[in-house]
Amino acid sequence: MLVGRELVIRPVRHILRGALFDSTSDKYSFNVYRYTNPLYLGDGLGSSEPVHGWAWQVWQPHFQPLLFDVLETEIFGSVGKLTTFDAWADKLLEICLRPGLHTAGELQACVVAPVLAGQPERAVKFIREIERRDPTGMGHWVKKQLGFLDRTSVRSAPSFTTGRPRRPRN
Fold first, then answer.
1. Are 32 and 21 a contacting pair, CB within 8 Å?
2. DSSP 91
3. Which residues contact 43 (CB under 8 A, 6 or more apart)?
4. Which letter does DSSP use for residue 61 in this model?
5. Which residues, in sequence order, are CB contacts of 7 under 8 Å at separation 6+?
6. Does the model's pTM come out above 0.85?
7. CB neighbours (10 Å) of residue 147?
8. 128-140: buried (b, 16+ CB within 10 Å) or exposed (e) per residue?
9. In what order do the strands lie in the sheet with 2-3?
10. Complete DSSP assignment for 92-130
11. pLDDT by residue for the chain (170 residues), tens digit each?
């Protein structure tokens, strides 16, 4: 279904998946992105990866067959496989652990997705990796995320920050 600039397939497990079409300064060209957006984090916090930036010139004779082939194999063939929170967590962690800058939304999604997949220990591992990479600049963020994990964990489970069982609250 085409919604604005997004060609999406049915959301699964609160994850919107599809292709995003973006304009360029040339009115006869555009960019295509592989697009995923976790609906549980709000609008605009998805991730997008460009696909064949050089190929999308509408006057070229190969344009239409190439577009349909890329949509089928490289976009929907890829994002269509994201049908579980496990797969979603794998995809996000792969993106967020790549070198480079990441948005606050991407980092937050990389903490929430493993929790939703029932794997909070992966979220802790990710947070600790971010802390290792930038111990001074990410200290506040790390503390906030570990606090989130402690609030969302089962009361009888060990604390993610200390490894000790938590005391019941009065």
1. yes
2. H
3. 37
4. T
5. 1, 18, 19, 20, 21, 71
6. no
7. 12
8. eebbeeeeeebee
9. 2-3, 6-12, 15-23, 30-38, 47-51
10. HHHHHTSSS---HHHHHHHHHHHHHTT-HHHHHHHHHHH
11. 888 888 998 877 778 889 989 888 888 889 898 888 877 776 555 556 788 877 788 988 989 999 999 999 989 998 888 888 888 889 889 888 888 888 777 888 889 889 988 999 999 999 999 999 887 888 889 999 999 898 876 433 444 444 444 455 55
Residues for the chain: how many in total? 170
Q: Which two tokens stand for residue 59?
A: 């006057």
C-alpha count within 13 angstroms, C-beta hemisphere, residue 97? 15
Tokens for 148, please give them. 């989130």
